[in-house]
Write a structure and sequence with these properties.
six-stranded mixed sheet; oxidoreductase; Ald_Oxase/xanthine_DH-like; 3 domains; iron ion binding; seven-stranded mixed sheet; 19 helices; globular; Aldehyde Oxidoreductase, domain 3; oxidoreductase activity; Aldehyde Oxidoreductase, domain 4; alpha+beta
């Protein structure tokens, strides 16, 4: 028998193509020589009324083919963009128009759309457009939104888009009665996804087929397809959306449709030419999406051991000027905040607020880093108050292994119960302590202090809901060549799907790994899908692919059993060959079985010659049985009853420079539980990437708006991201596997694990090094220097 590939660190099949520069991204799509290019005029103001738009000089520019403003849009295109995920608490949801109507609400909002022979001409033409504005007072930041002395939308009282409260027990009474109480005020500033590839869309209209084809850098090709059909008045069957290689998504590309994803196909259909739009980096900064920004107030009651008796959390979430993705981010914060702990009585309430800044949609972690920051800062505060070890306080609050499934009594982001399926948090704590050297650290800290060096250690734990529904599907087709073609509808942004999905198919079907080809994000191959986000690809599409391969295998065995005159249970499939167990000479390869599965009337080649109805089959039976279809394939969908919950713990040792306040990472350790591992090497790659983003989010990256709503650092000259020199070159990783009972593979998601606890773990380590409370993230050397400067003399660290 062949070695099972599940759990093996199989080398990624995608890498050689990418490393050799053979990737094909949206900007590489070339559909004919006559491609036109688009550019977008964007608002220079955060809040203004549009009085007039004069485009009279635009068409005089040689090479310009068309210009659109809102007044040129008709039908569904003139309506607001969809509110993708409604929620009863989102009482004042607002979305923008494809092109601004009457008013702009953030710097970067699309106002006009120009199509020309090339991008240079299109951008030059933008300079010919004259817009008269009446400036309105902007609302920038959570404090201004809460003050509500000015409004983003006149019809949204108090700038409150939504208010949501959930409570289990009576948290305020439990806190009041607790032996000990603490209150914390915390802040997490805005950051944003910065994928290597920005947004890009190419579209072509075929008048002969009455059909639209669009290529777009998205995390939801089927979502874009549905939006295009609705907005352009087409049947779903008239629209194909193909996602080529995507140079990173991280959440920003799950929002759909972006205005350009509608305007480019509209232009292609109107002009009868292929049209392309590729955003530049500044456009990505000012016109896509941000995340993270929250202000939090935590009150907690606990006993002498540090066990939580009551937890009351109130926070304010900055969702920007519009809410296309609903309340997903703050809902995740409010529920995932609990991590691996039993909170006693729990109350959480949040307000999601409008500001005149770029909209907020999920960014890797999607509300979890903020929740983890609140919970882990609370745990550290309790330990400090009681004078207990930080690991001990966490341990007394853990959900225990024999308590799963554990129902928190809350409603999660998918509208289903917040019920953890499996885990072993005490075992994980022991692993992370050993990995980082927790028990030995006090001695190391004393030793370093004798040298005048400040070091600190931090720990943070999290639980992550992964594999949210509603479904994903898969199609597995065995060719007459013996090759296996696999299609699933979700998209790929570099996660290694072609590798891990091929591993699953090879294991279940018994074919060679090298014979499996995986296609993702092409609605022609899989028209029904949801998308790639929320660490769901392996759980959702992996399970669907496993089930589809199982169906294909059942058909293989049925056909082969008939051909070999053997019982199905006596057959095995090894390296793509079906044979009778114990009699390997009685065998058929998968290609031959595929030939037998499709009795053609005409012979086009040697394979089909063997399959014509005149040369094969039992004369007493129809060539295709009544309960079968021709061809050797399997199709299935996986739809879970609820999310599955991965978990992990991170620990870091940092050194803070006593003079410059620079923060250096000395050691970083991760213990992670994503259920059964499909490919440990790819999981570790995901963790490494997440930690790198987490380092950036904790120590460097923030969106700096001034009071007028101008983004001050909308370039890589000013928006600081960590280089390889700032990311730890060695991350110690250990795995814990508690299989999920909710899917056939026992797996959980892993894509966001590396980034979730970063703010919390760095805050804890810096606080331990400096003996200064760290309540706001990110923290730069300048921030730390300022914190030191504001310490009273008696509180200065020795």
């Amino acid at each position: 028998m062949t070695t099972k590939l599940m759990g093996q660190g199989v080398q990624r099949v995608e890498d050689q193509r990418f490393l050799r520069g053979q990737g094909r991204y949206a900007d590489d799509v070339a559909v004919g020589p006559a491609t036109l290019h688009a550019a977008v005029l964007r608002s220079p103001h955060a809040h203004a009324r549009i009085l007039d738009i004069d485009v009279s000089g635009v068409l005089d520019v040689y090479g310009v083919h068309a210009v659109w403003t809102y007044d040129d849009l008709t039908g569904p295109m003139a309506e607001p963009l969809p509110l993708l995920i409604p929620h009863p608490a989102l009482t004042h949801g607002r979305t923008q128009y494809a092109l601004a109507k009457d008013e702009v609400n953030y710097v970067g909002e699309a106002i006009a759309f120009v199509v020309a022979e090339d991008r240079y001409v299109a951008e030059d033409a933008l300079d010919r457009i004259r817009v008269d504005y009446e400036l309105l007072p902007p609302v920038v930041g959570i404090d201004a939104a809460r003050a509500a002395d000015r409004l983003v939308h006149d019809d949204v009282p108090g700038n409150v888009g939504a208010r949501l409260e959930q409570e289990v027990g009576d948290a305020r009474a439990a806190i009041a009665a607790a032996p000990h109480r603490l209150a914390l005020d915390l802040t997490v500033e805005r950051s944003a996804c910065q994928p290597l590839e920005g947004r890009g869309t190419v579209a072509r209209w075929d008048p002969d087929l009455n059909r639209l084809q669009a290529w777009t850098s998205t995390q939801s090709s089927t979502g874009v397809r549905a939006a295009l059909a609705v907005k352009l008045g087409l049947d779903l069957g008239q629209v194909d959306v193909i996602t080529p290689d995507v140079g990173g998504g991280f959440g920003v590309k799950i929002n759909h449709p972006w205005p350009e994803e509608l305007l480019v196909p509209l232009a292609a259909k109107t002009l009868g030419r292929t049209v392309k739009f590729t955003e530049d980096r500044r456009e990505h900064f000012i016109s896509t999406a941000h995340e993270r920004g929250q202000v939090q107030h935590v009150e907690v009651g606990f006993d002498d051991e540090g066990q939580l008796l009551g937890l009351d959390v109130e926070f304010w979430h900055d969702h920007g000027a519009y809410t296309p993705y609903g309340l997903i981010v703050p809902i995740i914060t409010s529920t995932q905040l609990l991590g691996p702990y039993k909170p006693g009585a729990y109350r959480v309430v949040f307000e999601s607020l409008y500001t005149n800044t770029v909209m907020v949609t999920p960014y890797r972690g999607a509300g979890r880093p903020q929740g983890c920051f609140a919970m882990e800062r609370t745990m550290d505060a309790i330990a400090e108050y009681l004078g207990r070890d930080r690991t001990e306080v966490r341990a007394v609050n853990f959900i225990q292994p024999d308590e799963f499934p554990y129902d928190h009594g809350l409603v999660f982001q998918d509208g289903r119960e917040l019920e953890y399926d499996s885990g072993d948090y005490p075992a994980m704590l022991e692993k992370i302590k050993a990995l980082v050297g927790w028990d030995e650290f006090p001695q190391f800290q004393k030793h370093m202090a004798l040298q005048g060096r400040r070091v600190g250690i931090g720990l943070a734990a999290y639980v992550e809901g992964t594999g949210v529904g509603p479904y994903e599907g898969a199609h597995v087709h065995i060719e007459t060549s013996g090759k296996v073609k696999v299609a699933t509808g979700l998209t790929t942004q570099g996660q290694g799907h072609a590798t891990v999905f091929a591993q699953l198919v090879a294991d279940e079907l018994g074919c060679r790994f090298e014979d499996v080809e995986v296609v993702t994000g092409d609605t022609r191959r899989m028209p029904y899908a949801v998308g790639t986000f929320a660490s769901r690809a392996a759980v959702m599409s992996g399970s669907a692919i496993h089930l589809a391969a199982k169906r294909a295998k059942e058909k293989v065995l049925k056909i082969a059993a008939d051909a070999l005159e053997a019982a199905e249970e006596d057959l095995q499939i090894v390296d793509g060959v079906v044979s009778v167990i114990g009699a390997p000479s009685s065998s058929l390869d998968l290609g031959t079985v595929s030939v037998l599965s499709n009795p053609l009337r005409y012979a086009f080649d040697e394979a089909s010659k063997r399959a014509t109805q005149f040369s094969v089959g039992d004369p007493g039976k129809p060539p295709v049985p009544e309960d079968e279809e021709p061809g050797l394939e399997g199709k299935d969908f996986y739809s879970p009853e609820r999310a599955t919950f991965a978990s992990g713990m991170h620990a870091v040792i940092v050194e803070t420079d006593p003079d410059t306040a620079e923060i250096t990472i000395l050691k970083y350790a991760v213990v992670h539980d994503c259920g059964r591992l499909i490919n440990p090497m790819i999981v570790e790659g995901q963790i490494h990437g997440g930690v790198a983003q987490g380092v950036g989010g904790a120590l460097y990256e923030r969106m700096a708006y001034d009071e007028s709503g101008q983004l001050l650092n909308a370039s890589f000259m000013d928006f600081l991201m960590p280089y390889v020199t700032e990311v730890p070159d060695g991350i110690d990783i250990d795995h814990l596997e508690t299989p999920s009972p909710l899917n056939p593979l026992g797996i959980k998601g892993a894509g966001e694990a590396g980034v979730i606890p970063s703010a919390a773990v760095f805050a804890a380590a810096i606080e331990d090094a400096e003996r200064i409370p760290i309540t706001a993230m990110p923290i730069s050397p300048s921030d730390l220097f300022a914190l030191r400067a504001h310490l009273p003399p008696t509180e200065e660290r020795p």
